[in-house]
Amino acid sequence: MCLAIPMQITHMDGLIAKCAAKGVEREVSLILLQSEPLQEGDYILIHVGYAIQKISEQEALTTWELLDQMLAEELAGA
Fold this sequence. Notes:
The chain is elongated, with a radius of gyration of 13 Å. A five-stranded antiparallel sheet has the order 3-2-1-4-5, covered by helices on one side. The two termini are 21 Å apart. By secondary structure, it is α+β, with helices and mostly antiparallel strands. It contains one helix and five strands, in the order βββββα. Helix content is 27%, strand content 41%.
């Protein structure tokens, strides 16, 4: 199963972005979205270090809610 994580761009330097989500920061390649107009503050989906899609803030928040719910259910069953 593949999973993409929503993160927010905090800084951009060419085709490399620093992104953050839930207190975690990562450097991410923007090469796959080079034709997409991106700026600091935008939300993107990250898969294995690459930004693969620009998403809305609401989509990012909804995804994090679902991931948090899945984790809580997994921990409750453990």
